Amino acid sequence: RMPVTRRPTRAELSRLERVAARRRQIAGTREEWHASAFDNALKQFDEAIAELERAQELEPLSVAINTDLGLVLYLARRYEDAVTQLERAVTLSPEDVTLNDHLGDAYWKVGRTREAVFQWTHARDLGAEGDALAVIADKIVNGLPAEGPGDNKAPG
Fold first, then answer.
1. What is the pLDDT of residue 11?
2. At what angle do helices 63-75 and 10-58 cross, to 10 degrees?
3. Phi-psi region at 55: left, alpha or beta (left = phi > 0; alpha = psi -120 to 50)
4. Do 97 and 128 form a contact (C-beta atoms < 8 A)?
5. Residue 126 class from Cβ within 10 Å (0-12 exposed, 13-18 middle, 19+ buried)?
6. Most buried in the list 14, 30, 77, 91, measured by CB within 10 Å?
7. pLDDT digit string, tens, across residues 12-23
8. d(Cα 21, Cα 122) in Å, to the nearest integer?
9. What is the pLDDT of residues 37-79, one digit of tens each?
10. Contact at 8 Å (CB) between 17 and 41?
11. Cβ pair 97, 122 in contact under 8 A
12. Range list of H helices, the chain
């Protein structure tokens, strides 16, 4: 037996139109918010990079400043710049496990896979421990995982 269908009333149609309009408004607002949040994040990276570059001018041999600048460049997906900066930081503190690990990550992102594996192996051999050791060991075997569209993960 077929269900009986009826036409919606004017009041019901009006309500459905209001709901649909509100959903479109919310969707538009959400897209605008995401775009704005992305723009703000990029702006914050640029501001952080500028501040760290100023600090680096004042203290060019600071391991902390050089490391922070390298990490911010990496997070901003400026991988080539991150490599240059993290290489400088590793030169200042060659026995730092974490720095060597981060440099390996940056190498991987720019497609320098052999150097990445070398750097991760070096970090492991310097005495990585606990969770860091497990993560580094996994990277030595598998490289970095893909992050999604637009990720420039090097070929495994």
1. 73
2. 150
3. alpha
4. yes
5. middle
6. 77
7. 667 767 766 666
8. 58
9. 556 666 788 888 888 898 899 989 999 999 999 999 998 999 9
10. no
11. no
12. 10-58, 63-75, 79-92, 97-109, 113-127, 130-142
Three-state DSSP at 81 gives helix
155 CB neighbour count, 10 Å cutoff: 6
65 and 55 Cβ atoms separated by less than 8 Å: yes
Tokens found for residue 130? 């606990």
DSSP 4: P
152 Cβ contact partners less than 8 Å away, ≥ 6 residues apart: 79, 109, 110, 111
Which amino acid type is present at position 12? E
Question: What pLDDT shows up at residue 155?
Answer: 44
Using only the alpha carbons of the chain, give its radius of gyration.
Answer: 25
Q: Quick check: 63 and 55 in contact, CB under 8 A? A: no
Least confident among 31-35, 68-72, 121-125, 145-149: 31-35
**Does residue 106 register a pLDDT over 80?**
yes
Phi first, then psi, for residue 88 (nearest 5°) are: -60, -45
Whole-model pTM?
Answer: 0.70
Question: CB neighbours of 74 closer than 8 A, spacing ≥ 6?
Answer: 82, 86, 102, 105, 106, 109
